[in-house]
Protein 1
Amino acid sequence: MAARRGRLYALGVGPGDPELLTLKALRLLRAVPVVAYPAPEHGDSFARSIVAAWIEDHQREIAICIPMRPGSPPAEVYDAAAEQLAAELESGCDVALLCQGDPLFYGSFINLFTRLAAHWIEIVPGVSSLTACAAAAAVPLVSRNGTLAVIPATSDEDQIAARLAACDSAAIIKLGRQMVKVQRVLRRLGLLDGAVYVEHATLPTRRVAPLASIEPDQAPYFSMALITMSGRSDGRS
Amino acid sequence: MAARRGRLYALGVGPGDPELLTLKALRLLRAVPVVAYPAPEHGDSFARSIVAAWIEDHQREIAICIPMRPGSPPAEVYDAAAEQLAAELESGCDVALLCQGDPLFYGSFINLFTRLAAHWIEIVPGVSSLTACAAAAAVPLVSRNGTLAVIPATSDEDQIAARLAACDSAAIIKLGRQMVKVQRVLRRLGLLDGAVYVEHATLPTRRVAPLASIEPDQAPYFSMALITMSGRSDGRS
């Protein structure tokens, strides 16, 4: 008889506040013998920090090293991580893989998922940074018949403008070093004055402010701008 | 001394699976004397059904009647609902307002929020249908530098096409009676064959299938299509 293979649970653990964990993610996290999470080369894993209070001594931990440098990590990083997880699953261990926010919304999990297609995987959705930032800012993301665009700040200036022209509201995410460009394109489009800046939405370091008031070199990677087209300062809509 | 006014907690209770409630929403739900929720004229409140197991006898319940007819409810519906909630808050009662999915992502809460601006409100983000559908279908929503568009199926055909042209992946939501039109525009754009249909993502009635295989009159309101531009059947990308 073939040995039972392990199951991989990709758990969305939410945007940072440990209380934004779901009951389902908590149940599965506590049920598995192995807990895996992405971690930088130096320093702590953000995903692990969110659920640290629930991890128990008898659980084995696997830190998957994902170097945090500008640009995307090379394919070999994900190949190695997927092999590490596959070895656990093949040995029969169930694994909870912690994913900050939601696993399939800009998650590095996506790179592992495509490499682990031969395995049994359950994905548990989590609260994303998108809705967490809207809640922190008390800004409606989108309503009724509106189209919402989620635009990475790494897009080039013309692309950002084209994408803003095709929606009713937008979130420009991962501002970080792209802040000068994002402020410039929004100013050009008459959208800067109505834009709201949110940083670390659910953490004690939370900051909500008019985007126009933020110094360009102050924005961390985990920050976003919320924009509604009806907020144009030039009266167009 | 002025009497203490009540606090309104707008709780995102997730897309349907009771286990996708967050720990924070659960804590606040159990702490308040009054639980309010939107309800149709006839039948049960979907938001209430998600957390029914946690509501206790000593909690007072307020069903806010929101008629479910084509088009948006008239402003008077929300005026009356906001007055009802305001009266509770002014009498000093804390109220948990249950919001299916996330309160600020296409939520009818948005209509109440703008009317209750004078009150103390805390918004607790929830798991949205967007990430829940992606998890159910095991389809990455968006990754790396991609732009995601969320497009209501009520948009007209040219508008849907224009918005799809300005993103890397998309979710067309609230398919319901708009299914014929949505299938037609996706077929025209070479996107139908790659599109995935998801209905009731986290409920026992869940259905995931190729969008092209769905009979147009079968789609309920709570269904969506997930589309990636790299999935074009004509080879464009």
Note: Residues 75-90 of chain B form the longest helix (16 residues).
Protein 2
Amino acid sequence: MANGKLIVVGLGPGGAHDMSRRARTAVESCDLIAGYTVYVDLLRDEFPDKQVVTTPMRKEVERCRVALDEAAQGRTVAMVCSGDPGVYGMAGLIYELAQEYPPIAIEVIPGVSAANGGAAVLGAPLMHDYCVISLSDLLTPWEKIEKRLVAAAEADFVMALYNPSSHKRPDYLKRACDILLAHKDPSTVCGTVRNIGREGEEAHVMTLAELRDTQVDMFTTVFIGNSQTMELDGRMVTPRGYLQRED
Amino acid sequence: MANGKLIVVGLGPGGAHDMSRRARTAVESCDLIAGYTVYVDLLRDEFPDKQVVTTPMRKEVERCRVALDEAAQGRTVAMVCSGDPGVYGMAGLIYELAQEYPPIAIEVIPGVSAANGGAAVLGAPLMHDYCVISLSDLLTPWEKIEKRLVAAAEADFVMALYNPSSHKRPDYLKRACDILLAHKDPSTVCGTVRNIGREGEEAHVMTLAELRDTQVDMFTTVFIGNSQTMELDGRMVTPRGYLQRED
């Protein structure tokens, strides 16, 4: 029996209209679409005839095993992920688990990440060196997250913060802001974007001091400016330095 | 006269087949395509009838002014950028320069950045908290770059390094590696990707010690692993921690 193929496909933040042609072609040509229920549902209208297999939230290992099992049986499986599968997505876990299987061809098709997608909604906050940090301590000790926040603040990186809140940790963004405020000016320009590229998309620009007292949810990505980041006509913009060089 | 619109469009790393439907629609519906000659050329086959205005390398301010001038005259201009226009691209400069013009509607359509596109070629290196750092000191003092490299190493971020080399600074990657080697294990898994998504795409996985003695060019993006990053069957993979949690 021929070995199959597993293509890990990034949908971008908004689903179908954010997909690249490469991503679309991969989904069109697969035997089976696998993934988290919410993301697979984004594609049902566009690919109504495709067989799908879905798994619920938090079942990441099971979700990847289902996809690898199907590929090991000779099928071409498209595992779909929101945003970029290589950023807190399933790409790494697929490679790790594939070690337990006979050789399967694996390909990752990147998508626009929430960091890049959210930045475009806010303006242009990531124009200079930046860090992407998840505030979730489900898989990472909080001490490590804290250390990274301090390092990013001290070296004046722009930051994109994933998983800034959840039901079990509603105050994590506040904790993060308190850490940042020890190293950054309270007037630092920050932004939040909720439901990037989807219905109900919502963006706000504010200071770090204001962000500290803002309640966000798990569908929000948070942006912390560097010392140069400005608010221009309601947009969050970090200069790259072209005009400053001209001066 | 009605004010026009300026849409800053990310093409993704490889050009036309990496564009999202949103990006494609924007280019289809514009009056004029503007941008750096090389990127505009990527689109000529697909959009042969579009009027274009191109500017050579390094003329970033002029390029943005040309696009803003056209938009100010009531036209809808698509300014195209390789990768994501919000990452070392033109999005920020457009917002800055737009301050000198009457109100123009500006929209940014994100694309897959070189960091995310290159990561997908290498495997899954950016699965945990990461930094994006440009080694170019044309607009940023080297001392600041050095400080960010040290901070990223000490806090064990994965790193994606842009502009690792040029004719005028062929040894910058070596200098960066020497800084990193003071804080990271020489066996740290690293990777390089050249011509991401284009003809001649080429990827290599190696140790940090080997990377120090590797000559790369300006078409290469460099990835530095964190302490957990592994080489799995020739791929560069950073675990997120799902399996480690199960143990």
Note: Chain A has two domains: 5-112, 115-237.
